[in-house]
Task: structure prediction
Amino acid sequence: MESLGASILVVEDDETLAMGLESALEHEHFQVTHVDRGEKALAAIEDDIPDLMLLDVMLPGMDGITVLKKVKAEHPELPIIMVTAKGAELDRVLGLELGADDYVTKPFSLRELTARIRARLRARPAAPRTPETFRFGKNEVDLRRRILMREGVEHRMTTHESGVLQYLIAHRGQDVSREDLLQHVWGYSPTMATRTVDNQILKLRKKIEETPADPRHILTVHGTGYRFEV
Result:
C-alpha cells in the first residue's frame, strides 16, 4: 500500500475532532502528529517535514490560509488538504488558488478523507531512492532518525542537514547544483540565496570530514555546486 507509514500533520483546533482524526488515521497505519495552531504547524515542519498536511482553515491566531501561503512558499511539493466549513466557497477557491492540493468540507466522511489522502500521496513525485542507513569513510548515518555516528561519537543532524546529505547520497558521483538542493530540500523560495546551501555544507563537513577544509566526501564543483563521493 502506497501510504503505509506515511506521516501526516493534522492542524486542527477542535480537540474532539482532532482526536477522532488521529485515531482513525493511525488505524489506517498513518503516522499522525497533531497541533492546534498555525504557528505550531510551522514549527513542526521546520523540525520534520511530513508526507502530507491536513489543514483547517479556521484556526485561532494564524489562520489556515496564512499557514498555507507560508508552507507552500518554502515547501511547494508538500501535499496539503484544506478542511473548510460547509458553504465556505471563498475559502476553498482561495486555498486552491494559493496551492492547496485538495479540500474536504465539514462534516466529512472519514472514508472519503482517507481516499483523498491516499490519492494525494500517490500523486507525489517519486523521490530518489536512498537507503535509510548509509556508511562511508568513518561515518554511519541514519537518515530517518537524523543521526550521524563518527568513530563511535553520535551527532544529531538538523532537518536541512539530513535533507542535503540524503539528496547528495542519492546522487552520489553526480554534480548537484545549489539550485537543485534549494528546490528539493527547502522547497525553493526566490528570496533564498544559494549561500543558504553553502552554510549547510560547511556544517555537514565539520561533522563528517576528517579535515573539513580538505574534504574527501562532499566536494565543491566550482561554478556548479557539490558532488558526493564515498
